Structures are given as structure tokens and as C-alpha cells.
Amino acid sequence: MRIGFGYDVHKLVQGRKLILGGLIIPWEKGLDGHSDADVIIHSIIDALLGAMGEGDIGSHFPDSDKKYSNISSIILLKETLKIMEEKDFTINNIDISVVIEKPYLYPYISKIRTRLSEIFNLSVDRINLKATRNEKMGFVGRSEGVAAYCVASINEFIK
Question: What's the first-to-final CA gap in the chain, in angstroms?
């Protein structure tokens, strides 16, 4: 068994869709980034790559490469899952915390977990998602950005 940790943060801006966990969340602002800036998916990718000892999201999908401009993070996640498969790793479970002042994410937690379980082909009980606020402290508390943390537990099939 191996464990990896991931973290991602993006600034909230006008004129972009808010995409979290592969879902569009209705809100007046979205996350700024080279891709769709889905902090939940990005933190998962970093946790999975870390658990495999395969670097980070930037080393696999650099923001200097135009082919990743405005790309769906789901595509990047599926590429990460291909790396896992090639290296004979499987996911045990994933635990994510997203830190966001607004909008209130509780109504979307179940939908995001279901979406992720479909992508991973895992039962939903192996994917946990929590949302918390920053109590008006720091950039998240001022609704300037969103952060996500992820821990992933994976197994290595040893031949």
C-alpha cells in the first residue's frame, strides 16, 4: 500500500465557470487557470502521482504546453489513471477536503462523489469529500480563491 498527498489552489475570477470535481457549480465566478482549474481534480491527480512516486501534475501536464489550455481536468485525471494502470496500481480510497467560502457546496457533495466514483469505477463509499469554509480568514475567507487537499491510498500489484 502507498499513500500520496495532493494540494491545489486557484483564484476566483469573473468570466469563468466554477468547475469542481468535474461538475459545473452555478456561481458568479469561476477558477482561473491554464486548464479548467478544477482544484478538486488537480489535488486528486497530485495525490495519485505522489503515491506512485511519479512527480506532480505540472511535470505531466505543464501549463507551458498549449495542448492543455482550457482542457477539462477530467481528461488529465483519465491520463493519470492510465499511468496507474500501466504501473499496476489500483486505488483503495480517496479523501478530499475543499476549502471554499462561497458558494455553499453541501448540495453538490453527493453529486461530485458519484461523478468521481464513475470516473474511477469505484464504489462511492471509497471516495470521501468534505467542504469547509475558512471563517473569512485569508484569501479563501475573502472569497478570492479555492483550495483543495487530497490523500489517496493505492495498492501496487507486485508480480
Answer: 14
**Of 48-52, 93-97, 141-145, where does mean pLDDT reach its minimum?**
141-145
Domain ranges of the chain: 2-156
Q: What is residue 157's predicted lDDT score, i.e. its pLDDT?
A: 84
Dihedral (Cα; 10, 51, 106, 39), 10-degree rounding: 10
Taking a C-beta distance cutoff of 8 angstroms, is the pair 22, 108 a contact? no
For the segment 50-61, what is each residue's pLDDT rounded down to a tens digit?
999 999 999 999
The Cα–Cα gap between 44 and 10 comes to 15
Query: Domain 2-156, CATH 3.30.1330.50 — does that match?
Result: yes
| Position 65 pLDDT exceeds 80 | yes
The order of strands in the sheet holding 145-156 is: 30-31, 2-13, 145-156, 89-99, 127-132
| C-alpha 138, offset from chain centre | 21
